[in-house]
Amino acid sequence: MGADPAKCLVIEDSPAGVRAGVAAGMTTLGFTGGGHCPPDLAQRLLDIGAASTFSDMTRFPEIFARITQHQS
Length: 72
Prior knowledge:
Rossmann fold; 39% helix
C-alpha cells in the first residue's frame, strides 16, 4: 500500500494482532470490549506493546486525539 508504518494506527483485540502491529512499527491500540475478551486481556496487550487499551469504542476519539498529539 505504500503507507508509512509510523503514520498508521492499528486497533486490535488479540495478542497476535498487537504483536503484528508493533512489529510493523505501527502505533497499536488494544480493544478489550468484545464479549470474547478475557478479564486480563488489557494487561496482556500492554505487556506486548500496545500503546493503550480501551473497552468502550466511544472513548476512541479521545484516545486518538491523545496519540496524534504525541506524534506531532
